[in-house]
Design a protein that fits this description.
CATH topology of the largest domain in chain B: Aspartate Aminotransferase, domain 2
Distance between the termini of chain A: 42 Å
Number of strands of chain A: 3
Number of domains of chain B: 2
Shape of chain B: globular
Shape of chain A: globular
Largest interface: A-B, 21 and 19 residues
Order of helices and strands of chain A: HEEEHHHH
CATH architecture of the largest domain in chain B: 3-Layer(aba) Sandwich
Strand order of the largest sheet of chain A: 1-2-3
Order of helices and strands of chain B: EEEHHEHEHEHEHEHEEHEEHHEEHEEHEH
Oligomer: heterodimer
Distance between the termini of chain B: 39 Å
Structural class of chain B: alpha/beta
Structural class of chain A: alpha+beta
Largest sheet of chain A: 3 strands, antiparallel
């Protein structure tokens, strides 16, 4: 494979073979949002049992960065306590992605995380977390 | 055209991530020749002052420079008189001026505003807002599969109470050049006024408002080598005189009391507040530069580049090209590579120094009607060469490899 600074093998693999892709039968939380600038759309669903995310699924369409990030996010979320996940930062997401994300593509990289925060902590979650 | 023309544009020497910049985003904004940069710098160094009201030498010089710019723009598009030229902030503001001032005065309940399905948001949303405010209705001329206007619809559409036909001269997504003279004459026969969005036309080909007979035309300075912050509205005097001011305040008044005011003559009636003086100076230098080369020469050069680009891009497997063939279009080419998101393609091209635009290009309904959420768009100008096209093709092939397509 030819080298690229903005796309590494791991994230391209997540893009081509997204993990935890699909829907849950009876999700406890779910949210869907799109990024109108580029038409990316991500839905995240999760099952919660005793405060733990027992299962997570995502569905969506979009660029390699938004799909790969959402796919990686589902792996980061599974099995974690929902209260702990309040501390999951934008930087954690970007670090997991492992590529330098330019300002113009930040919304793509963080769309999945934004959708998860709204699913888990309500529609004002983003504002609260930005404080 | 001079072979050393690229030397006039300092930015074209830039390197991006170690690679030579290949600038193919000219439909968004064009680069500036040193003549424009110097003209603005010299104005600020030597003649800067506010216009029209000062008695001192600098104000005199600034006023002359500002009004000379108006003259040059009038001559560029063959407007009969400089007072037909109104300087605005950008082309969008020029369209809003017409929709707010002319529209609120002459469009009423049940009237029809005729647009096309290829309009930029700038020539769609101002009319949506006007239609909502006045109880008017918007109708659209549809496109055929090649992205051309279905001209056979126009006659029927004009049987409705159409008050204005507002359309783009050249599509910023499909590159289609519309037969605007023909449409204007049909619209006039039906008693409608015609406004042209000339933002993608005036920089790229000879545009003659007298021959086209359009009533209004909006275009923008920064898409024709000039600075940002200046747009142009051309209007027929009779219409402009019948319109109320768009914005009010200083510069646009004749006589003011505590209770009332009267308006300046054209064009100043529509230029409230301190205008874009340095920008006008830059625009004047840009117009001079363009006329030195010749708009017909520019058109010919772009035609050659687009033909070549078409040939080369067609060879790329799984690449979809949108819009008509090279004979009916300007230097704008929209495309998609297989299922790849255009933003990914644009990022990978950027790594190779190739600057293109990706997304819905401020024409969301049009792009969605193509069945996609966005396209990649390469747009050329006279300083682009065939080797820029080669660099684009190489960069697309490189992107294919990285994505394993």
């Amino acid at each position: 494979m030819t080298d690229s600074k903005s796309y590494n093998a791991l994230m391209l693999d997540h893009y081509r073979h997204p993990r935890n892709f699909g829907n849950l039968e009876r999700p406890d939380i779910a949210h869907e949002e799109s990024n109108t600038m580029c038409g990316d759309r991500i839905r995240i669903e999760a099952s919660i049992s005793q405060g733990m995310l027992t299962d997570v699924r995502f569905k969506g369409r979009g660029c390699a960065i938004s799909i790969a990030a959402a796919s990686m996010l589902t792996e980061m979320l599974k099995g974690r306590s929902i209260m702990d996940l309040k501390d999951l930062t934008d930087d954690d997401m970007l670090k997991a992605l492992g590529i330098p994300v330019k300002r113009t593509r930040l919304n793509c990289a963080l769309l999945g995380l934004k959708v998860f925060r709204k699913a888990a902590f309500g529609s004002h979650a983003e504002d609260d977390l930005m404080k | 055209m001079r072979s050393d023309i690229r030397k006039d544009f300092p930015i074209l020497k830039r390197r991006i991530e170690g690679k030579q910049l290949v600038y193919l985003d000219n439909a968004a904004t064009t680069q500036k020749p040193i003549a424009v940069i110097d003209a603005m710098a010299n104005f600020y160094k030597c003649s800067n002052a506010n216009v029209h009201r000062g008695i001192h030498t600098l104000s005199e010089e600034a006023t002359t420079a500002y009004e000379t710019a108006r003259n040059k723009v009038a001559k560029l598009i063959n407007a009969p008189n400089p007072d037909h030229i109104i300087f605005t902030r950008n082309a969008t503001e020029a369209i809003n001026l017409v929709s707010q001032s002319w529209g609120k005065t002459f469009i009423g309940k049940g009237d029809v505003i005729l647009l096309t399905r290829m309009e930029h948001h700038a020539n769609l949303i101002p009319w949506q807002q006007l239609a909502k405010a006045q109880g008017a209705r918007i109708a659209f001329i549809d496109l055929d599969k090649q992205g051309r206007l279905q001209l056979n619809q126009i006659k029927k559409l004009l049987q409705e109470p159409v008050k204005i036909v507002s359309l783009t001269h050249v599509s910023n997504v499909l590159g289609t050049i519309n037969p605007v003279a023909e449409i204007t004459s049909q619209a006039h026969e039906a008693g409608a006024v015609v406004m042209l969005d000339g933002a993608q036309a005036v920089p790229h080909m000879p545009v003659n408002v007298f021959d086209l007979d359009c009533d209004f035309m909006a275009f923008s300075g920064h898409k024709m080598l000039g600075p940002t912050g200046i747009g142009i509205l051309y209007g027929k005097r009779k219409l402009l005189n019948a319109m109320p001011p768009f914005m009010t305040g200083g510069e646009m008044i004749e006589d003011v009391t505590w209770e009332n005011a009267t308006w300046s003559e054209l064009p100043w009636k529509f230029e409230a507040g301190t205008p874009c003086i340095a920008q006008a100076v830059g625009l004047a230098a840009a117009v001079e530069y363009l006329q030195d080369i010749g708009l017909d020469v520019i058109r010919e050069h772009e035609y050659d580049i687009v033909n070549y680009a078409f040939e080369q891009l067609k060879k790329i497997e799984n690449l979809t090209l949108y819009g008509p063939g090279p004979d009916e279009r300007s230097g704008v080419i929209s495309f998609n590579l297989a299922e790849m998101h255009p933003h990914d393609l644009a990022s990978l091209l950027d790594e190779q120094g190739v600057a293109i635009r990706a997304g819905h290009h401020c024409a969301q309904p049009l792009v969605e009607s193509l069945g996609v959420t966005g396209t990649a768009r390469a747009s050329f100008y006279f300083y682009n060469t065939r080797s820029d096209v080669d660099a684009l093709v190489d960069a697309i092939q490189n992107a294919r490899k990285i994505f394993g397509l």
